[in-house]
Every structure is written in C-alpha cells, then in structure tokens.
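User: My instructor asked us to take a sequence, write out its structure as tokens, and then describe one feature of it. I'm not sure where to start. Here is the sequence I was given:
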Amino acid sequence: MAKNQGLTPDDRVKLKTLDTLLESDVPRSHTIVAALIVKHWCEEHNVFQSQLVMRAERWRRQHIELNQQWRKGQKGIFSDLMRILELPDDIEPGVRASKKRRTKRITQPSLLPKAPSGMITDKEASSFLKMLDEDGISDVFDPGNYIHDNTVFRPPLIFLDGKSIFFDDIWPMYRDGNIKRSWDSQNRSPEIALALDYVLMIIHKEKKWTWQVADRYLVRLPWGHPWKLTHQGRPGWVASLQILSENGMIEKHHGQTWKLRSGGCQIVSGLVCSAWVNF
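Assistant: Let's start with the prediction itself. The structure tokens for your sequence are:
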C-alpha cells in the first residue's frame, strides 16, 4: 500500500488514542497528547500526517483555553487564597523578604506609525471581548483575516474570472479525490494537492512566484494547513519551489523570481482553473 493511499491499522489506533485523550479534561491527558503528536510528527505530508495536523490544531485550541482559565484563576481566587496562606504573623523574621507591591500599569496605545493616539476606551474593550466570544481566538488572530468594525472577514483564496474562491468551497473536491491531477508525478495528500494547484493559479494570475507573493496568498490557508505562513518560516514557499521545479511546471526567471513554463501555462488554463471556477 502506498503511503498516501490510506491509514494502516496502527495509524488508526494512534489517532483513536489521541481522540480519546483529547476528550479528557485531565491535565495529564493534555500533556500526553502533546508528547504523542511530537513523537509521531514528520515532514511527509501523507494521509496520517494530515490527520495528525487536525488533532494538533484541536490541541492548540484547548491549550489556549486552558491558559486563559489558569490566568483568570491566578488573578482571582488563587491569589486570594495565597494571601490568606501567607499572613505576615506566620512568617519567621528574616526568613523571607517582604514582597514589593507592583503598581498596576495603565494600558498604553501602540507607538507604531498610524497607531491610535488615545487610550483604549471601555466601549472598545467591550466590543473586542464580544468579538472574541463570537468568532473565537483563532479567527480573530488569524493573520489571513482582517477586522473592520469589530467584524472578522476571511478573504477568498483567490479571485478567478471575477469569482471568489474560498477554501471551504473547493476543499471537499480534493478531500473526496474529485480533481484530476495528471500533471503531478506523485499521489499527494489532499492538503498538498490543493496547495500545489493553488500556487499554480497564483503564478498564472500574478505572472510570477516570489516569497512576497507567497506570503500574501498562502497566509489565507486555514490554521492547521502545512503550507500556511507561520512565524517559524515559509513552508509553502520552499516546498512549492521544489515540487513544481521537479515536475517541470516552473522555471527561474531571475534572482528569487520564478514563472510558469509553457507546459505549466497549459495545465493551469486548461485544467486547474476551469476545475476551480466551475466547481
């Protein structure tokens, strides 16, 4: 069985174990899940790895929620109980220095150019917290989204022939294997197959492939996608150059600029674009 064509019985056991642990509220389970994901993580984007990425994204959201709950406790009832347990009369002289009271800092506006010049108002803070509750931390802080009037907007992956193509619309076709990709010499996982076709259409639209173009478009992929732009690097930029070059789809134009070869133009205009626009 080819590595990208399905899950082995051992893979299913591992994923089932992770699902069970992710359902648990025990902190120890949260730690075990992290250890297991790190243990099984690899750079091969096969079916098992794509499933592992989804569990990792679920773990990340739980981790953020746990950290928020812990911080609330530290500032609330935890702090109150610690003050009760640390009464000055119970401490022997000279054993411990008294704690200095920290002055609560007032939130200051950013000093960056075009930043707000005034203080954050209570109304603005309330609106922001309401937006967090309604849309979730992941969507609010996703660098691929933008916020206007306390409303989160997710831009489309790309505009083709005047049509907005969103990830949620095109993804089921790749997940179910309904897109023919005869140009690719390898049987890719659905996430990578979609990303490669996406890059081809970006190059066709922009007439070039540079890391600046990659940053602008690949950041629109959803959290958990292996090619989404991250602070740790540009995985989509590096991988797309290697795979598309090996398949003869692109060629270096100059410096760090690449363009489609004649064969690549035919593939994009004849197959890939029509499949995306007419989905």
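For the description part of your assignment, you could build on this observation: The radius of gyration is 25 Å. Try explaining in your own words what that tells you about the chain.
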